[in-house]
Write a structure and sequence with these properties.
The protein is α/β, with parallel strands linked by helices. The protein is built from eleven helices and twelve strands. The chain has helices at 3-16, 20-28, 35-48, 54-61, 77-92, 106-116, 159-173, 189-201, 215-227, 238-251, 284-299, and strands at 66-71, 96-101, 122-126, 142-145, 154-157, 177-181, 204-208, 232-235, 260-263, 278-281, 308-311, 314-316. The strands form two sheets. The protein has a six-stranded parallel beta sheet with strand order 2-1-3-4-5-11, with helices on both faces. A six-stranded mixed beta sheet has the order 7-6-8-9-10-12, sandwiched between helices. Strand 8, helix 10 and strand 9 (260-263) form a beta-alpha-beta unit. Helix 5 (77-92) crosses helix 11 (284-299) and helix 9 packs across helix 10. The radius of gyration is 25 Å and the shape is elongated.
């Protein structure tokens, strides 16, 4: 705490006729102080023009009311909507949210956690790449999104379950050789999504990747996909999907007449659903809000129930899938 802030708090306490500790509680945790005392402290603070410094609040309560969210990158709109939900939940509970970017690097995740662990109340890590041991540090409240680690609360979007349904949909149309355009190297969710698609279709699934979850990667892999003989393809995310669709149009490949194409996340939220795609509706904002609420429970010493939350998704059948020619 800054010395001038402490001195001014002492002035408030002296004027109100209470101890510094009581003055601090009256300003930060008013529910712990009798109404008459609370009002005296507030009146003294107003008269002296005192504003409580955040560092003083942290000292008095052990809380900074600042949460950190680690995201792989900011270019992916999928993460943007998770952040929006997380920020809403944080602000509703009187907290601020600090967003930091790991660039999909386990080493940078470690650096960010080490740098911020004494400055924030806890972390939400979205699809982190680091080893499980990085997220089980003592006295570092942590919640994972789209990743599970033993002993760490998590919120996992059930995309594998959705891809199981998507595989069954494609198989029902008659597709027997399906391509999966995979996610980035080190992704915890990627092999689980692939398994869901394989188990749902019951037929051959050809995996392409790992691939960066970008428009460029979708554009680049299209020629190889067309040459593979697959009659349907499922993209790991919307950026891959849009890159693939762009290249297919350039090549003159008609969707879905010559190739059915699906996406594993919700294009409608990003204004990209043209043409209307067969995709998964993913409630990303709900996932972000749930992760923050879970973290706040951990910070307050309330173990979450259940420890691992699953967020359901919905298969939306659109205009980009049809029976193979």
């Amino acid at each position: 705490m800054r010395e001038d802030a402490m001195a001014r708090l002492a002035d408030v306490a002296r004027k109100a006729g209470v101890s510094v500790a009581t003055a601090s509680r009256a300003l930060v945790r008013p529910e712990m102080v009798a109404e008459r005392t609370r009002q005296r402290v507030r009146d003294a603070a107003i008269e002296l023009g005192f504003r409580y410094h955040p560092s003083a609040q942290a000292l008095a309560t052990g809380r900074t009311r600042l949460l950190a969210m680690i995201v792989p990158d900011l270019a992916n709109p999928f993460y943007a909507t998770i952040i929006a939900g997380a920020q809403r939940a944080a602000e509703e509970a009187g907290n601020d949210l600090l967003v930091v970017v790991s660039d999909e690097s386990p080493e940078r995740e470690r650096t960010l956690i080490d740098r911020l662990r004494n400055r924030v109340d806890g972390f939400v890590a979205i699809a982190p790449r680091g080893p499980a041991s990085l997220f089980t540090l003592p006295d570092v409240p942590m919640v994972l999104v789209d990743r599970r680690a033993r002993g760490v609360p998590s919120v996992v979007i059930d995309t594998p379950g959705g891809l199981h349904e998507m595989g069954a949909h494609l198989a029902g149309l008659g597709h027997r050789r399906i391509a999966y355009l995979g996610g980035p190297r080190g992704s915890w969710a990627d092999p689980r999504r692939l398994d869901g698609l394989r188990n749902g279709s019951g037929h051959e699934v050809v995996a392409f990747g790992p691939l960066p979850p970008t428009f460029e990667a979708g554009n680049r892999i299209a020629d190889e996909l067309v040459a593979s003989g697959c009659t349907a393809a499922v993209a790991y995310n919307s950026a891959l999907f849009m890159g693939l669709m762009y290249r297919l149009a350039t090549l003159g490949v008609k969707v879905p007449e010559q190739l059915s194409v699906c996406c594993a996340d919700d294009l409608a939220e990003f204004g990209l659903a043209v043409p209307e795609a067969t995709t998964l509706h993913v409630p990303t904002e709900d996932a972000g809000a749930s992760a923050v609420r879970t973290l706040l429970g951990v910070v307050d010493g309330r173990p979450p129930e259940p420890r691992h939350r699953s967020v359901p998704v919905e298969l939306v059948i659109g205009a980009t899938t049809a029976a193979p020619a």
